[in-house]
Amino acid sequence: MTPMHLGQTSTLPASPEEAVLDYVPNPRPAQIYLVRFTQPEFTSLCPVTGQPDFAHLVIDYAPAETIVESKSLKLFLGSFRNHAAFHEDCTVGIGERLFREMRPQWLRIGGYWYPRGGMPIDVFWQSGAAPADLWLPEQGVAPYRGRG
């Protein structure tokens, strides 16, 4: 389980499929705790028009045996820059991949997409019910009002 990106020079993957996510051992496997990653400047492309779409992503998870290495996660998320997919596909796909590969106790993702045509689209996915003793703060993204 040697990380491919940590401490190495890495280039932005050409696509999410080519991106390699690194996982390292959880330093506190006996504890129930929450890890949050916030990506306020996520971008992908509209599959119909090719125009850029922007989102504020919030990824929360309760680790099990591994945690995702943050540099590899940044590269993975950056690989969507030239990826054409609907908001729902991007948001749910990110959550599903992290859950499938990392196997956390629990994971949720909130995709707060900036409006196109005056309407924001927010997409939420979670792996199931949160563990009973997990402190679960609000995701902290303001309701739409120019969202910025």
TrEMBL record:
InterPro entries linked to this entry: GTP-CH-I_C/QueF, NADPH_dep_7-cyano-7-deazaG_red, QueF, QueF_type1
Q: Which EC number applies?
A: 1.7.1.13
Q: Which is an annotated Pfam family here?
A: QueF
Which residues are the active-site ones? 46, 53
Can you name one GO molecular function term for this protein? Answer: preQ1 synthase activity
Query: What EC class does the entry list?
Result: oxidoreductase
Cellular component GO terms, alphabetical: cytoplasm
Functional note: Catalyzes the NADPH-dependent reduction of 7-cyano-7-deazaguanine (preQ0) to 7-aminomethyl-7-deazaguanine (preQ1).
Protein name stated in the entry: NADPH-dependent 7-cyano-7-deazaguanine reductase
